[in-house]
Amino acid sequence: MRVVVWAVVAAAWLFASATPSSARGPYGSITVGNWKGGAFTNDKDGAFTHCSAGTTYQSGIFFMVAIANNGSWRLGFAHESWRLTPGEAFPLALTFDGQPAFNVYGMPLGTQLVNVEMPVNSALINQFRKARQMTAFAQGQLFQFNLNQTAQLLPALLNCVVSVKKNGVASAGEFAVAAKPAAAPPQQPAPSPTQKQAKSGTGTGFVVSSAGHVVTNHHVINGCSEITGNLSGEAPVKLRLVSGDETNDLALLQAPAPFKDVAKIRQNPIPVGNGVVAIGYPYHGLLTSDFTVTTGIVSSLSGILNDTRFLQISAAVQPGNSGGPLFDLGGSVVGVVAAKLDAVTVARATGTIPENINFAIKTGALRDFLDNSAVQYQTAEWRDSLKRETPEIAKDARGYTLLIVCKVNEQAAGAKKPVN
Percent of the chain at pLDDT above 70? Predict the structure, then answer.
């Protein structure tokens, strides 16, 4: 409830001249997929100011799109943890589906809200309506947004403005423009179970308990109809999903029988600059069928937007590494490999190619997740005397690092594709 109230206040403030109390709304409603909003007025004189709708992303960022009573449009970005300096504008590069960037300016309206005045540019509006993904690059930070149903969102906002200007907020209703239904396709016979085509994706996981519990990323197994895992050179076994944490991108699986070896999780935090080893199964089937080993250092103790749940690491990772263990130089797990910065997207937005910027979930979040799932896991404290060579760490990891295969039948794949 607190997030919903805060998001509504941010949406109202987007066109307010001073404080959130100077705007009131929403009146009526705009409901387009996950986008929610309506019409807003100036609380001082009751004059209609704008229509806006927004949605909250997994990162916690509330993203808004608004059209003013004069037809101008703008974007807004808000986050409860931001501490911005109001009135200090900064350049912002917006890219839609990898097209050439549009250079605009962000203006903090408060410590947590950024307003972006958008130029009345037909090419820009068309790109926004058609785009599936938008990136925003500012002050060395890159943010990515999936744009779902913006082709319906902008007409709904425009309809809101026109309707309220004509009839007033008292007559406000649902402003979303109903899409004309397409002609129904001819009926096809339902496929038999043997006709269903299976799609699959791969990732990495590691054993965390003597009861056969395995940890991986939530996005590796999300939407899977069948999950299997196998140690290098061994037959796959079916894994069942025990629990998932989409916010922290963690998932707990369990095998029907225990594994011989179990990973140990480092209890004390790893300092910045320390060496790390990443092990996983990138591009399985294209590269080696065995796991790969890469080394690097902890580059930062936080991820994008100073997200303290993550470590930034220089050890190279690729698709398929997701969910794999990140080790310190003693062989203890210090993180769960989760993501890499999209070099192509950053290059298009900035003209430079980022190198060795990857992210892993810290063990603090991992231990909380395992504690909440009542998993008995092993821990280890770092001591300089525990330092080992990389081949030794890899040799031990072979006994508890698994290739995770997510299978999705044709019906499930229509709703959710496996991602690694």
Answer: 80
